[in-house]
Amino acid sequence: MVGIPVFMYHKVSPNRGRKAEKLRVTPKKFDWQMRYLFANGYRTISTAQLVDFCQGKGSLPKRRIIISFDDGYEDNFTQAFPILKKYGFRAIIFLVTDYIGSDSCWDEKGPEQLLNWAEIEEMSQAGMEFGSHSHTHRLLPSLPKEEIRLEVERSKSVLESKLGEPIEFFSYPWGKLNEEVKEIVEGCGYRGAFSTLPGKNRMGEDSFALRRILIRGYDTTFHFLLNLKLGRSRI
Ligand SMILES: [Zn+2]
Question: Does 3.90.190.20 match the CATH number of domain 6-230?
């Protein structure tokens, strides 16, 4: 299937229990996946290049991909970042600004350590991209308009003032959006936003509902290859 795949990860760390978790990919598996992509000629692009492509501004060579992380877990720095660097890959990490340097409050199985500013700055200087995943990770479509605006606007300004560069991409908490949320994100000056709609991104794709492919901790190699080729893990 044609189009640009955007892989969505969350945690990259060893499993805490015996069972693999949906949103936690082990470092060993993540390394295998990045090595596979690299060895098969895949190269990472920026989110700006993806949106330009979707808007018909220039074509892209084949085998281009985006690696994205939601929530900003600390293991993105300790585990995923060294692996990405090994293959010369970049990635975009979507941060929840009010929780930077503390623990998540949205994980079903209890809090998890999130990235701090020193780690974010080090990755930013090394070419990693950052985007907003809202200020407090609430379900945006359920909020009054003014609160949606605060979630979207505040996270952008906090990141811009700390990192000293424009923050142009957003990822919807829980992947949930509606027309109102989309309009507010666009109105706050973002260039695009990522949903959890599966599939690859093609020319003409809605820049404020970009597609992503969830890479799950218990996916087999077969699932991974289906995701890469078809943009979904089922035939
Ligand atoms: Zn999230």
Answer: no
